[in-house]
């Protein structure tokens, strides 16, 4: 779905409307994106003929290949970037070693909650236009508020801020924009669960994170950065 989201947010309005207006067209795009993903990530690949066969004759080999060409053209062949979940796991691997008294089981629970948050991000169109790295940081932030007590949470957020400043090299959104993405992501999760994870959804809930992040930005003399 990541390829589909990126395609629809990058193509022309006319093209996006064509794929979104008709169920058959959207299914064709989704099947083609799956076909491309298999070719780039799996050890064993299959041809467009098999994809057409699996579709029970709904789509032809030519339609799938034509849609594949369109997908690759719009995405400029950038079809295998790091996903939000890969970013989250990488960031956690950099953050966790610097936090005392955070046990492996708690790290595992944090990663499980982060993965759940990231998976739910595909349900919101506006989040599909965010950087994968921004979704990862927002999900980690929400997971911290959901699972960590106040003491270890502050240590985690400070370590997270230091990691973002010191280890990445492409600009991320302003901290307050990241806060908006975080709240929107949590809203999607809450709607799905019919519960509220965060103890406080207002701006003050993230004040320690935003203050620390802005301070570190100023200290570094640059914007905080996280990859594409």
Range of strand content: under 5%
Number of domains: 2
- By CATH, the topology of the largest domain is Cyclin A, domain 1
What is the chain-wise order of helices and strands? HHHHHHHHHHHH
User: What's the CATH first level of the largest domain?
Assistant: Mainly Alpha
Structural class: mainly alpha
Largest sheet: none
Helicity range: 55-70%
Rg of Cα set: 20 Å
Q: Mean pLDDT, nearest integer?
A: 79
Low-confidence runs of at least 5 consecutive residues: 198-206, 219-228
Q: How many beta-strand runs?
A: 0
- The CATH architecture of the largest domain can be named as Orthogonal Bundle
Shape: elongated
Task: Note the gap between the termini.
Answer: 17 Å
Number of alpha- plus pi-helical segments? 12
Tell me what you see in this structure.
The protein is mainly alpha-helical. It has 2 domains: 2-74, no CATH class; 84-220, Cyclin A, domain 1 (Orthogonal Bundle). Helices cover 69% and strands 0% of the residues. The chain has 12 helices and no strands. The longest helix has 19 residues, at 23-41. The radius of gyration is 20 Å and the shape is elongated. The two termini are 17 Å apart. Mean pLDDT is 79; it is low at 198-206 and 219-228.
Short account of what is shown:
With 228 residues, the protein is mainly α.
List the helices and strands and how they pair.
Elements: H1 2-10, H2 13-21, H3 23-41, H4 48-54, H5 61-74, H6 84-95, H7 104-120, H8 125-128, H9 132-147, H10 150-167, H11 175-193, H12 207-220
Helix pairs in contact: 2-3, 3-5, 4-5, 6-7, 6-9, 6-10, 7-9, 7-11, 9-11, 10-12
């Amino acid at each position: 779905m990541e390829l589909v989201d990126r395609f629809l947010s990058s193509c022309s309005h006319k093209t996006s409307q064509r794929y979104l207006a008709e169920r058959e067209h959207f299914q064709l795009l989704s099947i083609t994106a799956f076909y491309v993903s298999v070719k780039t990530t799996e050890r064993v690949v299959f041809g467009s003929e098999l994809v057409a066969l699996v579709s029970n004759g709904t789509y032809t080999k030519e339609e799938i290949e034509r849609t594949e060409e369109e997908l690759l053209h719009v995405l400029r062949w950038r079809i295998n970037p790091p996903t939000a979940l890969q970013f989250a796991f990488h960031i956690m691997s950099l953050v966790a070693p610097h936090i005392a008294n955070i046990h492996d089981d708690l790290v595992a629970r944090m990663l499980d909650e982060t993965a759940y948050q990231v998976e739910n991000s595909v349900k919101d169109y506006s989040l599909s236009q965010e950087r994968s790295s921004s979704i990862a940081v927002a999900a980690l932030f929400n997971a911290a508020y959901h699972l960590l007590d106040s003491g270890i949470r502050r240590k985690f957020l400070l370590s997270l801020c230091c990691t973002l400043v010191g280890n990445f090299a492409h600009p991320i959104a302003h901290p307050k924009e990241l806060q908006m993405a975080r709240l929107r992501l949590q809203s999607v999760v809450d709607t799905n669960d019919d519960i509220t994870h965060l103890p406080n959804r207002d701006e003050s809930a993230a004040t320690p994170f935003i203050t620390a992040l802005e301070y570190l930005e100023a200290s570094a003399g640059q914007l905080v950065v996280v990859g594409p």
